[in-house]
Amino acid sequence: MTKPTTLESLISASGASFRELTEHERQASLDAFVARGLPDDIWVFGYGSLVWRPEFDFLEQRLARVNGYHRSLCLWSRINRGTPEQPGLVFGLDVGGSCRGMAYRIASHQVTDILQELWKREMPSAAYIPKWLNCRTGQGTIRALVFTMDRGKDAYVRGLDKDQLLAIVQRAHGIYGPCAEYVLETAQALRQAGIHDRKLDALIEQLSTQAQQADAGHEPAAAHPGKKRGAAALPHSAR
Predict the structure, then answer these.
(1) How far apart are CA 91 and CA 94, in angstroms?
(2) Which residues fall within 8 angstroms of residue 189, CB to CB, at 6 or more apart?
(3) 235 contact partners, CB below 8 Å, separation of at least 6
(4) Which of 68, 137, 58, 60 is nearest to 99 (CA)?
(5) Which sequence spans correspond to the domains of the chain?
(6) Which of 3.40.50.300, 3.40.50.620, 3.40.50.720, 3.10.490.10 is the CATH number of 7-159?
């Protein structure tokens, strides 16, 4: 299959089979995962919006590292941070490298209810593969639930050049707000946690430069990355 050469053709090709899971399909996915067995308390590893907006109760949180995967803006967002016609991008955990994030320990008596909410949040279109992965922390290695990118889905995107990535993040806007705001919130939360992501920092610098140019009257910008907006408590993650 010939790889699309323009951003427009890439968006068109990726959206051909986009659909959300039905409630029955999502529940079946969760049931299949739980059927493999759960520990009493469980750990959940966050690398994107879960770092700054977990939206569930937890007993403990730790900085953690997952090996074999890296944080990447590799998931199309056609609802929460974009539209079907002009999708945004949100973070997925793609194969290769390593990723630092935040791990949360959930009490056994809350696991069932919180997993229900997590599946609504993270698995609206089955773009992720939920896995148990080892996470290294300062207090030792833990086994955590991690939502990894399914490379077989049309929602997965790779091979974007710098200009294409920048254009998508700048222009997209969904029901939860601008894609640029989502990227900025994640970058700020990672820095506050002492996590440094060079690729993300470089993207923020590019967004900041273009926002400054826009302020000087050169061109419009979707969101000003130099100014953090108040993040409302939302029921689902940015997809």
Answers:
(1) 9
(2) 51, 52
(3) 55, 120, 121
(4) 68
(5) 7-159
(6) 3.10.490.10
Please tell me the distance from the alpha carbon of residue 59 to that of residue 105, in angstroms, as a whole number. 6
Please give the C-alpha separations between residue 76 and each of 67, 79, 80, in angstroms, as whole numbers.
24, 9, 10
Could you say which residues of the chain have pLDDT below 70?
1-5, 13-17, 217-239
What confidence tens digit (pLDDT) does each residue in 61-103 have? 999 999 999 999 999 998 889 998 899 999 999 999 999 999 9
Neighbours of 176 (CB within 10 A): 24
- Per residue in 104-128, pLDDT (tens digit) is 999 999 999 999 999 999 998 889 9
pTM, full prediction: 0.83
Q: Is 111 helix (H, G, I), strand (E, B) or coil?
A: helix
Among 150, 59, 66, CA closest to 104:
59
Q: Positive or negative, the Cα torsion across 57, 63, 64, 70?
A: positive
Determine the Cα–Cα distance for residues 33 and 11; give it in Å rounded to an integer.
Answer: 31
- 8 Å CB contact between 131 and 148: yes
Query: Could you list the active site residues?
Result: 122
DSSP state at residue 155: T
- Report the chain's mean pLDDT, rounded to a whole number: 87
* Distance (Å, whole) CA 215 – CA 132: 46
